Amino acid sequence: MNSILSDRINAMEESATIAMAKKARELKGQGIDIISLSLGEPDFKTPIHIQQAAKDAIDEGKYFSYAPVAGYQDLREAIAKKLREENNIQEAKAENIVVSTGAKHSIANIFMCIINEGDEVVIFSPYWVSYSEIIKLAGGVPVLIEGDLENNFKATAEQLKAAISDKTKAVIYSSPCNPSGSVFSKEELQAIAEVIKEKEDVVVVADEIYELINFTGDHASIASFPGMFERTITVNGFSKGYAMTGWRVGYICAPVSLAKACEKIQSQFTSGGTGIAQRAALAGLTGDQAPSQEMAKAYLKRRDLVLELLKEIPGIKTHVPEGAFYFFPDVSAFFGKRAGDQTIHNADDFCLYILNEAHVSLVTGAAFGAPDCVRLSYAASEEELKEALKRIKDALSKLN
Ligand code: PMP
Ligand code: GLU
Asked: Where would I find the H helices in 14-68?
């Protein structure tokens, strides 16, 4: 029966983050006390006023039909207003906004709309797992430019310049970054924008889904720089900043022609997002921002906690993440070490060893383009984080 599957799907990797989370869930189901630090998902509940807006929307009885394909007009207007006022993207209007079933879906729409067979997309690496698979599915060729631990995993404008070719169609990065937690400064993004502007038909996909979890206090949107609006697709959503992963609401702000193309593809694939979830998202955007700010404060506290605990583990090398909720330590010092019959050859083995021995789930850096690293999500309680780091330390001390 395998032969029924297309080459396209056979060539696709399963999402490593989701695969690891599934494995952790299965082990938990068997009664094993797993601490899951693999999935990048807020452990907070969606703020009460957002929940209430969804309940009200149900009671009103007006949102059970198909929503407009690109999203409710008032939500699109509220998003455009937010982008103008908070992100300084002055050109943003409702017509530039397409609301989708999560930012992952927004990204899939974009690449399906712009890639022709063989087009190249430059990815700032380490990168979020789904970029490369979505690009390949659309017929594109990912070209990685790599940041490393020494420069906080931030590839540079010079690297971008060297990687752009006549086949380049787009460039994609996330800031704050999943998996590294690094944040591009305004100056760094300006340098990147200058390189992109040198090429007529290259667009940049700016994934800003972790915008609200930024400890630098400074979030820069590349679409706000002179001459960049027409070349930028800003991606954002409600999953992270508003703890709304399961509601599945994301959006893009793009030049009108591209927004219309994304609306067209969405009209064939999903007919648009869920009405009730969009009403909740609108309440998130226009209502009290204090819960989001409180969550960001809690992540910062946890970051500092985990940083101290990681420093106590000999062999682990880490930078200090400035946003999102991930550490991305280099664990290559453990490659070649063993305990009993388990040998650690690479980051995959490292994660497997930690899962078996410490009952903590992490994700291999190989999935994010950095095979010396592993990703640890600290979207977990302080108690869980302390226990997990203790277990990891103990397990690693058994290696020699
Ligand atoms: N971009 C990045 C960098 C992410 O980490 C995620 C998390 N899933 C997404 C996009 C997609 O988010 P969602 O589909 O939940 O809106
Ligand atoms: N973005 C999260 C992560 O990286 C959620 C899982 C996913 O969508 O891949 O873990």
From this structure: 16-29, 48-60
- Token pair of 195, please? 């390189």
What number of residues does the chain have?
400
* 104 Cβ inside 6 Å of ligand 2: yes
What is the whole-number distance in angstroms between the Cα of residue 11 and the centre of ligand 2?
Answer: 20
Residue with CA at minimum distance from ligand 1 atom 5: 178
Residue 142, preceding peptide bond in cis (omega within 30° of 0): no
The response to whether residue 18 sits with its C-beta less than 6 Å from ligand 2 reads: yes
Nearest Cα to Cα of residue 180 among 236, 239, 126? 126
Asked if residue 245 has its Cβ within 6 Å of ligand 1, the reply is yes
Q: Which atom of ligand 1 is nearest to the CA of 250?
A: 16
Which residues are within 8 A (CB) of 376 and not within 5 positions of it... i.e. 6 or more apart? 37, 306, 326, 327, 328, 329, 362
User: Which DSSP symbol is given to 154?
Assistant: -
Domain architecture of the chain: domains with CATH: 2-45+291-397 (3.90.1150.10), 62-286 (3.40.640.10)
Q: How far is CA 175 from CA 187, 196, 222, 308, in A?
A: 13, 17, 10, 24
| Rounded Cα gap, residues 82 and 32, in angstroms | 44
Cβ-proximal residues to 299 (8 Å cutoff; 6+ apart), any chain: 213, 215, 325, 378, 379
Residues 313-359 pLDDT 10s:
999 999 999 999 999 999 999 999 999 888 999 999 999 999 999 99
Q: Is 270:255 a contact under the CB 8 Å cutoff?
A: no
The segments of the chain whose pLDDT lies below 70 read: 1-2
Q: Ligand 1 within 6 A of 15 CB?
A: no
